[in-house]
Design goal:
Two copies of one chain form a homodimer. Helices cover 50% and strands 9% of the residues of chain A. Chain A has 703 residues and is α+β, with helices and mostly antiparallel strands. Chain A folds into three domains: 34-117, Acyl-CoA dehydrogenase/oxidase, N-terminal domain (Butyryl-Coa Dehydrogenase, subunit A, domain 1, Orthogonal Bundle); 125-290, Beta Barrel (Butyryl-CoA Dehydrogenase, subunit A, domain 2), CATH 2.40.110.10; 299-477 and 506-639, Up-down Bundle (Butyryl-CoA Dehydrogenase, subunit A, domain 3), CATH 1.20.140.10. Chains A, B: Pfam families: ACOX (PF01756), ACOX_C_alpha1 (PF22924), Acyl-CoA_dh_M (PF02770), Acyl-CoA_ox_N (PF14749).
Chain lengths: 703, 703
């Protein structure tokens, strides 16, 4: 049947889409933009960063190891194999530092950002090396960190177990000190103690940071980190006493070899115990405690600030695709307001429908909201690090608590928004060529890892309740940095305050918006405090309300950072940037009011808003959609995400959606043969039963 | 390196999970159940159906073509190939009718249900054959339907185009009558006219129903169906003039070969035009119109009733997995109420946390809600079919409108619930072994196909607004079958009614619940009518509110059918079934009150509920969770879904979660070799740089 192995019948002809084409439609959209798109990009990224982006892009776009053409067609093992290739090539490119490509660390990060797919070495960089940097003594730095930086060893970070996730204190793997040989014995006592979900462990790593319960002199001292060799450096075979492998296919993230590992009385040398903060004395096995390290909270704030910044990219990517496609895709003629093109009625671009605007434009606004809050979190992180050096821990509690809730809130927003954008692309959103499917799958773990999004809200709520009690007791004063105390104080001064709005446009007033969000958060906190402190309700029975007050607090922060930055940022308040500031102000109002509408029952229950005001609020949201609509393409263009990064048929800058869909369909491996594998056994016998074939029935012309 | 091709290091030892094991925990749960699980299963499915289920199950569990062991590891082409195998074997088994296995049509359906994965032949059964049955004349039945029933031809249904989805009237493919040869010429004039998304077309089908614009005597008569051969019956090669192939990878549904097809002046004989309802006269090309067929609305009701019943299965599957795993999975010790086992404190099973109950138990309730509404829709469908035969179309409009909104509402509920259940399984929910990942991916198109969920709400809303205007004008009388008219009439009699609840338990009163849902739906409809009819707002600007009133109406129906059935069903009201009725009543209240809480702002805005009542409502929801919690495992066991169907490590009936996870990980194809493909090129060069190897560094013992 090899005569069919040409691809004629699956090649599309040169036909054009029915006009107007995507190019013309997007061009018309871009003519409507009333602010300078490039200035907005520069404001968000800096010109220097954008230059780096383009330099790195030009390199990797022509690197076969970074080619994305086959990304959506690959099987699991192909994904792993090509990811390893990319990992190797990345190291080679980075090593060209000071020679051909001049990549610094930021450019290395940009290359990973643009490639946009985690790989077996990802955890080597994001967890193995940072842990070695922060938790080793000098001898260990030489032994582990230096070869890790040179890729002479490849590592991962093994904490989670099959039966133990969020509750790290419950892990079962033990590391028992053996004074006779000055070794530790790693052991997995049960099936549930198997390390599980460990990125890079399944197939790539030869070392692992293993979190295990330190036992010395018969005492269980809880989880501590060990740096452990797990595979041969000569031939990569697992070492004796170790059971290790890949945990199997996942919802996404299949380019990473998440692995399992079990230890059977596996001996490791004394030096394996990471000894920067606590030590086990050789021979005696005497343990010395780490200093109580509030400092590590600072690192968590940093990680979470970056997650919030990452949310901005996720929302930017999803909306860039959905908004551009929504201006190209046309559906039905809106009889009341028919769209014309060259004096002819055409079907209406779906972004002209209010429902589509309502589904997408608030997400564009939330991308900007996350940008401003991420930036503010990084600023406060720096401030706090400085303050802590001077022994000042005043900032830390508020910052840490907010960062927990913000990680929870914004990653949940992100995943919902990616899916909303995907669905807003109609049927084609379901094709992997949309660029939104694998993206959703790969993004999804963010709601579970780095703190489960439900559990995290308890941390935030605990702080909010404690602060409330302090404010009530007069033990907390408002400060420049602590807005929690400010809104709680304001609430306690007038617990029956009412929203002053008398017409829809009043809801555009930033002060009114901030008061509303502060009041609503404070009201919820006060209610929960009352139920726990006065009515004696258990923490467990209050978990639903507890997650609500964390969310209310973090929505206040997002709204506040957006509004305050627009009022105070020196770049944005320059006269030349007035149009840009104007559209950002509109977006900040849309973000705030749409959020209020989503959470309307809480604003109503607190007594702050009346039914009449809610109707005004809803009206104002629809009015804002109308204002943002013509700027929509400009607002996503300003995210400056290259086509290589998006890898989406629907989200292309040039709008050639249908041309791209057909090209990508041609490349589907199933189309490489005209007759499907399985035809002979499973289709032919039915079709041929009791039939003889006339000449005309065969596609002779093709043979 | 073949010495590593044994699998020793990736085989788990015989260790047990840390106790208590899943078996013991689930057994303890089952001891708490206070109703008869089997009776509830029988009530929902009938004993006869359950017998069939078990008979079919025993056959396919030992059929290699139905084996699910490799399901989660397969590449796209492996999925297609094994799906074709299953399709063939299914035909063979069905043909054994009256011989060995005695499968009737229901058993055939059960086998497909249990296999739980669509395949290339799926559309042959669900669209090709039904269309041929309903739209052909006798000659065409002989020519197309008979061979289709015998699988001598395999077909699909080609309507959607690359540029045209919901707006069927906008499709571009033409079928021009050529009187000279008495043929039609199928043609695809543009790239956007390519048929797209057509299940079974990509690789399997040799025929297609093609929807094309009929053009005869220069007149465009809009879309009509044609039955068209597209591939050779002798060797399966595409016929000349056709471009056909698979559209590529999708978010899910990758076991189906969704395809594209374009026609280049492709001639088909006159007989291809499906001629039951309209005809083109040979030679003259004179067209005769179909009778105006309201009748087809009946079929849509039937399809949608089955979608709602399908939602019940989706919710049942998701909750069975999540509830069982939540009783096995333990996390943290709840200090205020520590869980004991054999007098020892253990970590608390996560289902004991209120938040977990709040996330899962309302979904269990909604599965039952969908069952009762699906059943009622099927009953009304039958009633309506009978009525229409007598020329009575009174029932149709309400039934059709409700079915549109219910399809939209319940499939949206289903997909959100599947994801909520997946997330409630923590980290392991992200593993494909949870059974929830591919399930989510495959279920997702339900929110877009058979009517996009947003667009459908407009149909419902149009009917609701029209009915409202009729009621206001005194032109509509309440009837036994039209509850829309009833609640609108009731609302208009007192538009400022208030909820009479004075304590939390008052919210358990079914009459109070129904009044609340009716009032809230009517209030929303009245508001929208006012804004459109009096304030002159455009339909487009009202789309957000329009989707809300459709939802409000359909939530009323779901709540009503649940409550009324429990009050009136002859089986449920029997004395012996009192415990079963009791728990179902609790579930109906949980479903209703949790829905009210989700939509609280609408109940508040309508003025029906006060803030104080909302607090009572929330309290009552938490109380109900407490009542349902001990019955949770019984309620999902009653869904009677076999382990073969669930194919989930987390949802197993016996609770052996961790044993199953490790077994399935062992089977991951990446673990079939100890050293990963790509090691030599991409890892070894780094690791070996500047290193010599001592004997000890190699895992000699294994070699």
């Amino acid at each position: 049947m090899s005569i069919f192995n040409n691809n004629v019948a699956t090649k599309f002809s040169d036909l054009k889409p029915r006009g107007p084409g995507g190019e013309a439609l997007l061009e018309a959209e871009r003519e409507k933009i009333n602010f300078d798109v490039k200035s907005l990009s520069k404001f968000m990224y800096t010109e220097a960063w954008l230059d780096k982006l383009h330099r790195v892009l030009s390199v990797i776009e022509s690197e076969p190891a970074f080619d994305k053409t086959s990304r959506y067609y690959q099987s699991r093992s192909e994904k792993i194999k090509t990811s390893l290739w990319k990992d190797r090539r990345m190291v080679e490119l980075a090593r060209l530092f000071l020679r051909e490509h001049l990549w610094d660390e930021q450019e290395f990060q940009i290359a990973n950002f643009l490639f946009d797919q985690s790989s077996p070495f990802t955890l080597h960089y994001s967890m193995f090396i940072p842990t070695l940097k922060s938790q080793t003594n000098d001898e260990q730095k030489k032994l582990f960190l230096e070869p890790a930086l040179n890729h002479q060893i490849i590592g991962c970070y093994a904490q989670t177990e099959l039966g133990h996730g969020s509750n790290v204190q419950g892990i079962e793997t033990t590391a028992t000190y053996i004074p006779e040989t000055n070794e530790f014995e790693l052991h997995s006592p049960t099936l549930t103690s198997s390390k599980w979900w460990i990125g890079g462990l399944g197939k790539a790593a030869n070392h692992a940071i293993v979190m295990a319960r330190l036992i010395t002199n018969g005492k269980d001292l809880g989880p501590h980190p060990f740096c452990v060799q797990i595979r041969s450096l000569e031939n990569h075979a697992p070492l004796k006493g170790i059971t290790v492998g890949d945990i199997g296919p996942k919802f996404g993230f299949n380019s990473v070899d998440n692995g399992f590992i079990m230890f059977d009385h596996y001996r490791i040398p004394h030096i394996s115990f990471l000894a920067k903060f606590s030590q086990v004395q050789p021979s005696t096995g005497i343990y010395s405690k780490p200093p109580n390290a509030k400092l590590s909270y600072g690192t968590m704030v940093y990680v979470r600030a970056n997650i919030v910044m990452g949310v901005r990219y996720a929302l930017a990517k999803a909306t860039t695709i959905a908004i551009r496609y929504s201006t190209v895709r046309q559906q039905f003629v809106d009889a009341a307001s028919p769209k014309k093109w060259d004096n002819k009625v055409i079907e209406t671009p779906v972004l002209d429908y209010t429902m589509q605007q309502y589904r997408l434009l608030p997400i564009v606004a939330s991308a900007y909201a996350c940008f401003f809050t991420g930036r503010e979190m990084l600023r406060l992180y720096e401030l706090n690090q400085e303050a802590m050096k001077d022994g000042n821990f005043d900032l830390l509690a508020d910052l840490h608590a907010s960062s927990s809730g913000l990680k929870s809130l914004t990653t949940t927003m992100a995943i919902e928004s990616i899916e909303d954008c995907r669905r807003a692309c109609g049927g084609h959103g379901y094709s992997n060529f949309s660029g939104l499917g694998q993206f959703y799958q790969d993004y999804l773990p963010n709601v579970t890892w780095e703190g489960d999004n439900y559990i995290l809200t308890q941390q935030t709520a605990r702080y909010l309740l404690k602060t409330f009690r302090n404010v009530v007791a007069g033990k907390a004063e408002p400060s420049e940095y602590n807005h929690t105390i400010s809104y709680l104080t304001q609430f306690l001064q007038n617990t029956t305050a009412k929203c002053p709005a008398t017409k829809p446009a009043d809801f555009l007033n930033p002060e009114l918006i901030l008061s509303a969000f502060g009041f609503r958060a404070a009201y919820g906190i006060a209610k929960v405090a009352e139920q726990i402190d006065r009515e004696g309700r258990s923490w467990n029975s209050m978990l639903v309300e507890i997650s609500r007050i964390s969310k209310a607090h973090c929505q206040f922060i997002l709204v506040r950072n957006f509004i305050v930055t627009l009022q105070s940022d020196p770049t944005l308040t320059r006269a030349e940037h007035k149009p840009m500031n104007q559209i950002l102000r509109t977006l900040s109002a849309l973000f705030a009011l749409h959020t209020m509408e989503k959470e309307l029952s809480e604003f109503l229950l607190s007594g702050y808003l009346s039914s009449e005001q809610c109707a005004m609020l809803k009206e104002q949201v629809i009015t804002l959609l109308d204002v943002v609509r013509p700027q929509a393409v400009g607002l996503v263009d300003a995210f400056a995400l290259p086509d290589y990064y998006l890898h989406s048929a629907l989200g292309r800058y040039d709008g050639q959606v249908y041309e791209a869909m057909t090209k990508m369909a041609e490349a589907e491996p199933l189309n490489h043969t005209l007759v499907v594998d399985g035809y002979e056994e499973n289709i032919k016998p039915f079709v041929h039963q009791g039939r003889t074939f006339a000449k005309k029935d065969v596609s002779v012309s093709r043979l």
